[in-house]
Design brief:
The complex is a heterodimer. By secondary structure, chain A is mainly alpha-helical. Helices cover 73% and strands 1% of the residues of chain A. In chain A, helix 1 packs across helix 6, helix 1 packs antiparallel against helix 9 and helix 1 packs across helix 10. Chain B contains 11 helices and 15 strands. Chain B starts with a helix and ends in a 5-residue tail after the last strand. In chain B, helix 8 links the parallel strand 8 and strand 9. By secondary structure, chain B is α/β, with parallel strands linked by helices. The chains are: A mainly alpha, B alpha/beta. At the A-B interface, helix 1, strand 1, helix 11 and helix 12 of A face strand 7, helix 7 and helix 8 of B.
Chain lengths: 306, 357
C-alpha cells in the first residue's frame, strides 16, 4: 500500500517536465511543424533556470528567463525552417545540439551544485483527506498549472477559433492561406509556444523536480516528450494519460525494487519503455484513428505564393 | 583551475611545439566529465593536483576535462602524444581500448587507465579498494540505525559495486546484529539525477534509517536524504556540504597516492605495466565526514578498524561469510584474494535484492 501511495504521489511531479514539453511539441506539430530540438531547449533552460535560482533565489525569474531563452532557441529553428525553407528534421537536430552545447557552457560553473527544493503546496482541508489528500493535494504549483494547461489546451484545440486555425494550418497550409490566414505567423507562434513549454519543463526539471545541475541531466527526456506526442496520437488527453503512465512506471521501477519481488532490476528499468512500445503498437493497429488526428502537413515546409 | 588548464592547452595547440626542459616529465591528463564539487571527476582532478603538488617543477601536466569516450578522446590522446607527452592518464572506463592502442603505437609512452580490467605493455590500470571504506561506513550505519533499516542506491550490479555493498552490510552487522533485509534499488545507470532522487525517496518512504549512495554519479540522493532527515553515506568524496546535518560517513578516495607511485616508477625508468588495487594501507582510501552524532567510542571503534586495515591485521572479506541464500560464500578463516574480490558475484546474508543471472 505504501508503495502504491509513493508511486501515485510522485507520478505527477515525475511526469510534469515530460508533459509540459510534450504539450508544447503537440501544438507545434498541430501547426505542421516537427521540432526535434526539445532536448536541447530543455537542457539550455535547465542550466539557465538553475543558474538563476542559485544566484538570485527567485524561481519566478528563473522560469521566466529560462522560458524566454528556450523561445529564443525555437525562434532560431523557426527562422531556419520558415524563412530559409530548411529541412525541419535536420534543423531541429542542429538547433537541439546547439542547445545542449550552450547548456554545457552555461552550466560549467554550477556543475553538481544543489539547491533547496521549494516545499510543496498543501491545499487546505483537501490535503487532510487520507491517502487521496497526499496524492492529489500536496504537489508543487507547477504540477497543478501543468494539469490546468493540459485541459486548457484540450479545449482550445478542439473548441476554440484559435484551435481551429491551428488545425487548418496543420492539415493544409495552402487552404489556410487561401482562407486568408497567415500560415507563417501561426506556425511561428506555435513553434514559440513549443519553446516556451520546453523552457518551463527544463527549468522545472533542474530547480524543482531534481534541484541540481549536472551536464546532461535531461538525459533524453526531451525525446520521450516527442514520443509521447505520437503515443498520444496528437490528442491532448491521450498525451496526458501517456505522460502520467510513463511517470508512474518510472517510479514503479524504483519502488518495486525496494520490495525485492525477485524480479531482476534490469527488467524493471526497461518497463516504462517496453510498456510504451506495447501501448504504441496497440494504438497503431487502428490506423484510421491516427490519421484522424495526425496533422497532414506535418514536416512539410510551406512558402506562400505571392 | 580547469579553465586555466584549457587555456594552457589552447596555447600549446597554437604554438604546436611547446618547449619542455629535458628533465621534465610531460603528463597528459584526461577527465571524462565536467569537474563538479564531489564525485569521480572531482576526485580524479584532486588526484592530479596532489600529484602536481608532490612533484612540483619536475613534471608538466596538461589537463583537460569533459572529454568522454569516443572520437574526441582519441583525438585528444593523439594530440597530447604529438606534443611530447611521456605519460597519459585516462579517467574513463570507455578510454580503455583507445588507451591500449595508443600504448602499442607509441613505444616511449606510458598510459595509466582508471578502473579497467585490461593491462598491457606500458598500459597500467588502477582501482581503489572502495570496499574497505564501505565496511567502516557500514559500522557507522549500524551504530545509528535505530530501526535497523538500511537502504542502498547502487549504479550497476558489477563485482566492484557488489563488493562495496557486501562490505557495507558486513560492517553494519559487525556492530548491530539486528541489521537484516537491507533494501537495494539499482539505477542501472551511472548518471541520472532525477532517478537518483526518486530512488532515494522510494527508500526513505519505506522508513530507512541510513541511505547509502553507491556510485550515483551525482549528490542528488545525499541532498534528498538531508531534506528528509535521513542519514546519508557517500562514495568517492566527502559529501558533507550536501548534507550538513545528516552526513554520516563517506569513503574518501585519494587517487593522488596511486598517481605518485606511477610517476615515480616512470622517473626511475622501471615502469612496464601495472594493475594497482590500492586501499587504506596505500593511502588511497579513508573514511571522511564522520557524523558528530556518533559517540566518541563509536568513532574510535571505526578509526581503530581503519588502523587495523592499514596494518593488514583485518580484512572485511574474511570467513565465515554466508551468502543471502544461506550457502557458505567464504570459508571460516579464509580471506578472499584480489581476484575473488574483483569477481565477486554473491550477496551477503541480509541483503534483500536480486542479481541478474
Amino acid at each position: 500500500m505504501d508503495t502504491i501511495i509513493f508511486i501515485l504521489t510522485g507520478t505527477f511531479a515525475t511526469a510534469t517536465p515530460l508533459l509540459l514539453a510534450a504539450l508544447g511539441e503537440l501544438v507545434a506539430e498541430k501547426s505542421g511543424i516537427i521540432n526535434l530540438s526539445i532536448e536541447g531547449m530543455m537542457a539550455l533552460s535547465a542550466a539557465m533556470g538553475f543558474a538563476i535560482v542559485y544566484t538570485t533565489g527567485s524561481h519566478l525569474l528563473a522560469f521566466a528567463v529560462a522560458a524566454g531563452l528556450a523561445m529564443l532557441l525555437s525562434a532560431v529553428f523557426a527562422t531556419l525552417v520558415m524563412f530559409f525553407s530548411a529541412n525541419q528534421v535536420a534543423s531541429g537536430l542542429a538547433v537541439g545540439i546547439l542547445g545542449l552545447g550552450l547548456s554545457a557552457l552555461l552550466g560549467r560553473d554550477y556543475e553538481s551544485l544543489t539547491l533547496q527544493a521549494p516545499s510543496a503546496l498543501s491545499v487546505p482541508i483537501l490535503s487532510d483527506i487520507p491517502i487521496l489528500g497526499s496524492i492529489l493535494f500536496q504537489q508543487d504549483i507547477v504540477v497543478y498549472m501543468t494539469i490546468t494547461a493540459g485541459f486548457g489546451l484540450m479545449w482550445i484545440i478542439q473548441h476554440s477559433r484559435v484551435g481551429l486555425i491551428l488545425r487548418i494550418v496543420g492539415e493544409n497550409p495552402h487552404i489556410a492561406h487561401n482562407l486568408g490566414f497567415n500560415v507563417l505567423q501561426v506556425r511561428f507562434l506555435a513553434i514559440l509556444f513549443g519553446g516556451f513549454m520546453a523552457g518551463i519543463a527544463g527549468a522545472y526539471a533542474s530547480t524543482i523536480l531534481t534541484p541540481i545541475w549536472s551536464q546532461g541531466m535531461i538525459l533524453g527526456r526531451g525525446w520521450i516528450a516527442l514520443a509521447l506526442v505520437v503515443f498520444g496520437t496528437w490528442r491532448v488527453l491521450r498525451v496526458m494519460i501517456g505522460a502520467y503512465l510513463f511517470g508512474a512506471l518510472l517510479l514503479a521501477d524504483l519502488a518495486v525494487q525496494t520490495l525485492n519481488l525477485g524480479i531482476p532490476s534490469q527488467i524493471m528499468t526497461s518497463m516504462p519503455y517496453a510498456m510504451t512500445i506495447v501501448v504504441l503498437a496497440i494504438i497503431s493497429r487502428d490506423t484510421l484513428r491516427i490519421r484522424l488526428n495526425a496533422p497532414v502537413s506535418l514536416g512539410q515546409n510551406y512558402r506562400p505564393n505571392h | 583551475m580547469k579553465k586555466k588548464n584549457l587555456s594552457v592547452l589552447a596555447t600549446m595547440i597554437c604554438l604546436a611545439a611547446p618547449t619542455f626542459a629535458d628533465n621534465t616529465l610531460n603528463i597528459g591528463f584526461i577527465v571524462p566529465n565536467p569537474i563538479g564539487e564531489v564525485g569521480w571527476d572531482h576526485e580524479l582532478d584532486r588526484g592530479r593536483q596532489m600529484m602536481e603538488a608532490h612533484f612540483g617543477d619536475n613534471i608538466s601536466v596538461t589537463a583537460v576535462d569533459s572529454v568522454g569516450e569516443g572520437p574526441d578522446a582519441t583525438r585528444m590522446m593523439n594530440r597530447m602524444v604529438a606534443q611530447g607527452a611521456d605519460m597519459i592518464f585516462l579517467g574513463s572506463f570507455g578510454h580503455m581500448n583507445d588507451g591500449i592502442a595508443l600504448a602499442k603505437r607509441n613505444k616511449d609512452l606510458a598510459v595509466i587507465h582508471a578502473g579497467g580490467y585490461l593491462t598491457g605493455e606500458r598500459f597500467a590500470t588502477y582501482a581503489p579498494r572502495h570496499y574497505q571504506a564501505s565496511y567502516l561506513c557500514g559500522m557507522a550505519a549500524g551504530y545509528v540505525a535505530e530501526n535497523a533499516k538500511l537502504g542502498i542506491i547502487a549504479a550497476f550490479p558489477l563485482p566492484e559495486v557488489i563488493g562495496m555493498m557486501n562490505a557495507y552490510v558486513l560492517g553494519a552487522q559487525s556492530v548491530n546484529s539486528a541489521i537484516d533485509n537491507v533494501q537495494v534499488v539499482w539505477l542501472n545507470s551511472w548518471f541520472d539525477p532525477a532517478r537518483n532522487r526518486s530512488a532515494a525517496e522510494a527508500l526513505i518512504s519505506g522508513g530507512i534509517d541510513v541511505l547509502y549512495s553507491l556510485f550515483p554519479g551525482t549528490p542528488a540522493a545525499i541532498s534528498t536524504a538531508e531534506e528528509n532527515g535521513v542519514y546519508a553515506v557517500a562514495t568517492l568524496s566527502n559529501n558533507s556540504k550536501f548534507a550538513p546535518t545528516k552526513h554520516l560517513c563517506a569513503g574518501q578516495t585519494h587517487f593522488g597516492a596511486i598517481y605518485i607511485d606511477y610517476v615515480n616508477a616512470m622517473m626511475n625508468g622501471n615502469f612496464t605495466s601495472g594493475d594497482t588495487f590500492a586501499g587504506i594501507a596505500e593511502g588511497a582510501m579513508e573514511v571522511a565526514g564522520l557524523s558528530l552524532d556518533l559517540t566518541d567510542e563509536q568513532r574510535i571503534a571505526i578509526i581503530t578498524k581503519q588502523d587495523e586495515m592499514r596494518a593488514g591485521t583485518f580484512d572485511p572479506f574474511t570467513g565465515l561469510i554466508t551468502d543471502n541464500t544461506g550457502a557458505e560464500a567464504v570459508p571460516e578463516g579464509v580471506s578472499l584474494d584480489i581476484s575473488g574480490i574483483k569477481s565477486m558475484n554473491f550477496l551477503v546474508q541480509g541483503l534483500d535484492t536480486t542479481l541478474p543471472n
